[in-house]
Amino acid sequence: MGLFRRSDRGPARTAEAIRDFWEWWSRVRDDVAAALGEGTADSLASVLAPRVSRIHPDLEWETLPGRSARHALVVCAGGRPELRSVAERWHRAGPEADDLWEHHPARQPDPGGFTSSLEVAGRSLDLSRTVLAARADDTRCRLDVQVHHPDFPDLPDEARTQVSCLVLDWALGEDDVERWVGEITPLSDAPLDPVPASSFGLVVEQLRERWSREQWALLQGEGRRGRPLLAAARHPMLRVDHPLFDEHVAVTLSFPGTPQGLPTEEALAHLRAFEDHLLSRLGDAAVLVAHETHDGRRLLHLYDDGEASVAPQVEAVLPAYRGGRAQVRVEPDPAWRATSHLRP
Questions:
Q1: CATH number of 219's domain
Q2: Residue-level pLDDT, tens digit, the chain, 344 residues
Q3: Is 102 helix (H, G, I), strand (E, B) or coil?
Q4: Residue 107 per-residue DSSP state
Q5: Does 1 map to a domain?
Q6: Is residue 139 within 8 Å of 69, Cβ to Cβ?
Q7: Does some domain include residue 45?
Q8: Domain of residue 20, residue span
Q9: pTM of the full structure
Q10: Could you tell me if 189 and 120 lie in one domain?
Q11: Same domain (yes/no): 80, 60
């Protein structure tokens, strides 16, 4: 058995930058709110952007009217799943919301935004004229969305894409875009059966219950030597539902198999017993998202919070496996790329 972990000083620097941010924010929050109220916050970017960039240079931020407080500060991943845990740590380290400020680690739904205009590529877009069309894919549990605005033919591709992503963020909120939206296609021509962007959240609500039931998908394939490969994976596998889980924990269990490399009944009993024991020990500190079985081995894919790693607990449990050898390897994987091949 063995534990391998990549050395990484990044989390310590990030945590320090987050602490520094909130210490600074406690001193300037009232002044920022006053400037926003007076319409004199033009220089806000010059002081706020460097503070956010020290946490991570690719984080995005914005201030806007709050949902319950007077103002809201959003520091978010901007659709980059590898940064979602960073934004979440920033948020959890901050103060509770009050009457003046609320804070969010992802853009929130803002249907009221569709009553305003957006300046982009030298044009002013009346967002109330934005419409969407969507195709539901039950296999992927995703909505492929087409976005149209009458001014799209006059905009460059990059601007159309930017507007389309912002429209979906306002319609659903950033996390629900990550959760339910697949392909995003800007359209120059109006789609068939369009839905006003301000009403698109209702479309997603109709599908949420159907796609939110916990289920497992069974997958079959062939390994490199032509032997069968069996896998089971959570479906849908939603990284956004576990915003702090940015570390991949891979547990490999060997077993005496059939000529095709699959477990015998006895080996399968050992595998199941160990998996149950492991998950009962870890509780909510980790989530099992998939396992793969082939060539006399089963690979368990788990994710956890890299700043509260379950690696020591997993290492301690390995001797309980009675079916063969057991090994564990952990590595940072904030975008869950290690299991991307198991998602449809």
A1: 3.30.70
A2: 444 444 344 788 999 999 999 999 999 999 999 999 888 777 889 999 999 999 999 999 999 999 999 999 999 999 899 999 999 999 999 999 999 999 999 999 998 889 889 999 889 999 999 999 999 999 999 999 999 999 999 999 999 999 999 999 999 999 999 999 999 999 999 999 999 999 999 999 989 888 988 899 999 998 878 899 999 999 999 999 999 999 999 999 999 999 999 999 999 999 999 999 999 999 999 999 999 999 999 999 999 999 999 999 999 999 999 999 999 999 999 999 999 999 98
A3: strand
A4: P
A5: no
A6: no
A7: yes
A8: 10-104
A9: 0.90
A10: yes
A11: yes
Q: 310 and 201 in contact (C-beta within 8 Å)?
A: no
Residues 268, 255 within the same domain: yes
Helix (H, G, I), strand (E, B) or coil at 249: strand
Structure token pair of residue 259: 């000529």
**Domain termination site, one of 104, 133, 150:** 104
- Out of 84, 104, 124, a domain closes at 104
Structural domain count of the chain: 3
- Contact predicate 314/339, CB 8 Å: no
Q: Say how far apart CA 102 and CA 105 lie, in whole Å.
A: 11
In a domain, 325, yes or no: yes
In angstroms, the CA 91 to CA 315 distance is: 31
How far is residue 166's CA from residue 177's CA, in Å, rounded to a whole number? 10
Separation of alpha carbons 85 and 322, rounded Å: 36
Choose among 332, 301, 296: nearest CA to 314. 301
* CA atoms of 201 and 113, how far apart (whole Å): 13
- Alpha-carbon span 285 to 210, nearest angstrom: 27
- Strands 101-104, 131-137: pairing kind: unpaired
Query: Do residue 135 and residue 234 come from a single domain?
Result: no
In a domain, 290, yes or no: yes
